[in-house]
């Protein structure tokens, strides 16, 4: 990692917290804008705003866990050659955070979100997580990242400013429709049944925005592992609350959730796996779930059907 930083000519003092990186970007002499992104729903975000004026390379595909991802030598070369880099921030990309924060052309999209709107439970999180990074599950917060991308693209490609402005406005409107859709769907579930249990604690923003009680077997990072006590406490909660369904995640192993199901059934309560949710990664390219909007729509339909006892 140290060699990579030296190769890229990075200043130890340069970080997203210490400077406005967008203000320091210089206009390019050519297009399309070469962009590198981390998680695939950020890839989709940049494509929605940038359209045919950008060429986006995503480092993390479907099913990849950003908390555990380590940059390869090829990734470092791509980052070095990029005109712009967009990443989540808030330590989402746990193994890459030191590298990303020091890259002068790397923009954390979550820097667009006022810190008072982030989730920071009493006592904070263990380790490096001051804030919960899973902000995309509150669509109203994810809307704020659109202009962060637009501003950076317009800075390096001033000729495309009007294009980016129009694309961003259209996408923000699409996200407003998505936000309304989620509210309508969650309202179908009786209030006492609005309990979402998943493998790791990625859905707190979804719960806060849309009125779900959320429990995760693991913490907000998949680096932590659930122990026997975590499983038993969750099983006790499920049995007492008579929860119908719990959910697995595409980027997290199924085995811990399957252990919870088995333990609950041993206690005489037949909880089921209600389906697979996309948490830290969207779906495969070319599928509806491969976009941010499609990922969110899939998740909400899966949650609602599972909590209502309807199998998709």
Describe the structure in your own words:
This protein is an alpha/beta fold and 312 residues long. The protein contains 10 helices and 8 strands. α8 packs across α9. The longest helix has 26 residues. The N terminus is likely disordered.
Supply the key terms.
312 residues, alpha/beta, 4-stranded parallel β-sheet, two-stranded parallel sheet, 8 strands, elongated
Net shape? elongated
Termini separation comes to: 45 Å
Total number of beta strands: 8
Q: What oligomeric state best describes the polypeptide chains here?
A: single chain
Helices and strands, in order, run as HEHEHEHEHHEHEHEHEH
Strand order of the largest sheet: 2-1-3-4
Number of helices: 10
Question: How are the secondary structure elements laid out?
Answer:
Layout: H1 2-7, E1 33-37, H2 40-50, E2 54-58, H3 73-81, E3 84-87, H4 97-102, E4 106-108, H5 139-156, H6 161-186, E5 195-200, H7 204-210, E6 213-218, H8 228-241, E7 245-249, H9 255-266, E8 272-277, H10 292-307
Parallel strand pairs: 1-2, 1-3, 3-4, 5-6, 7-8
Helix pairs in contact: 2-5, 5-6, 6-10, 8-9
């Amino acid at each position: 990692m140290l060699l990579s930083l030296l190769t890229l000519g990075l200043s130890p003092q340069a970080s997203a917290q210490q400077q406005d990186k967008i203000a320091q970007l210089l206009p390019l002499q050519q297009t399309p804008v070469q962009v590198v992104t981390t998680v695939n729903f950020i890839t989709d975000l940049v494509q929605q705003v940038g359209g045919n004026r950008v060429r986006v390379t995503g480092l993390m595909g479907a099913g990849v866990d950003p908390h555990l991802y380590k940059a390869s030598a090829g990734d470092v070369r791509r980052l070095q050659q990029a005109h712009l880099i967009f990443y989540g921030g808030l330590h989402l990309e746990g193994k890459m955070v030191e590298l990303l924060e020091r890259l002068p052309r790397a923009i954390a999209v979550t820097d667009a979100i006022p810190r008072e709107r982030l989730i920071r439970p009493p006592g904070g999180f263990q380790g490096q997580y001051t804030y919960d990074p899973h902000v995309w599950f509150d669509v109203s917060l994810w809307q704020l990242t659109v202009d962060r991308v637009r501003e950076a693209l317009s800075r390096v490609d001033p000729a495309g400013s009007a294009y980016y402005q129009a694309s961003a406005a259209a996408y923000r409107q699409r996200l407003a429709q998505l936000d309304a859709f989620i509210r309508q769907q969650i309202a179908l579930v009786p209030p006492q049944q609005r309990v979402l249990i998943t493998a790791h604690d990625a859905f707190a923003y979804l719960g806060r925005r849309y009125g779900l009680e959320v429990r995760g077997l693991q913490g907000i990072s998949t680096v932590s592992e659930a122990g026997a006590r975590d499983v038993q406490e969750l099983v006790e909660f499920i049995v007492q609350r008579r929860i119908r369904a719990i959910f697995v995640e595409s980027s997290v192993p199924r085995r811990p959730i399957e252990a919870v199901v088995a333990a609950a059934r041993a206690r005489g309560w037949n909880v089921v796996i209600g389906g697979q949710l996309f948490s830290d990664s969207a779906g495969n390219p070319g599928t509806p779930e491969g976009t941010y909007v499609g990922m969110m729509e899939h998740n909400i339909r899966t949650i609602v059907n599972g909590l209502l006892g309807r199998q998709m």
